[in-house]
Amino acid sequence: MANQIVFAILATIIVASAIYSVATKSIMRAATALLVVLFGVAGMYFLLDYTFLGAVQISIYAGGITMIYIFAIQLVSKRTLQGLQERLKGSKVIAGCLAALAGIVTVLAVVMKYQFIDMFQQLPDKEIEMSVIGNTLMGAGKYQYVLPFEFISLFLLACIIGGLVILNNKKEENK
Length: 175
Hints:
Blueprint: H1 2-23, H2 27-47, H3 51-75, H4 78-83, H5 90-114, H6 116-121, H7 130-138, H8 146-174
Helix pairs in contact: 1-2, 2-3
């Protein structure tokens, strides 16, 4: 019963923070709300006794959010960060709600079509060993993830370089 209460609290915090992160126009508030979402997901992992995944969630994504803060401070002018007023237009809210509804319907259709709920009931009730997780994450074979990690790292490096180029262009314009 206590696990269900904690799950409900974490789920509420995650959903509310995710909605706020998308709805706000302030980049700092959005990054903070995203940080709350990621900590909530880590809490879910800890609730499921996946301490390794919870610790990885906190260490890696908290570092990522710190990078977002740094780039937000560097790339956005001080006046923009301080004086931005938030306004929601009715048409954008309706369009966002329709897009969210379409996403929910799509997810439910996939869950129903492939019967994921029945699959979870057939899973063995044993913990996966750390060596299996490590081999899966760092292997280059089928259903292993070292190549996607490498592509993501190159993409993030390109984003950092692009951010620095934009920053230099803005500095030159201000001079």
